[in-house]
Amino acid sequence: MVNYLFDPAHWSGADGIPTLIAEHLLYSLIALAIAAIIAVPLGIYIGVTGKGVFMIAGLANALRALPSVGLLILLVLLISPAFPSRMGYILPSLIVLVLLAVPPILTNTYAGVRAVDAAAVDAAKGMGFRTMKILTDVQLPCSLPLVLSGVRSALLQIISTATIAAYISLGGLGRLLIDGKAQNDYGQMVAGAVLVALLALFFDQLLAFITRRVVSPGLTRRTIKSATVAEPVKTPVTV
Question: What's this model's pTM, rounded to 2 decimal places?
Answer without folding.
Answer: 0.84
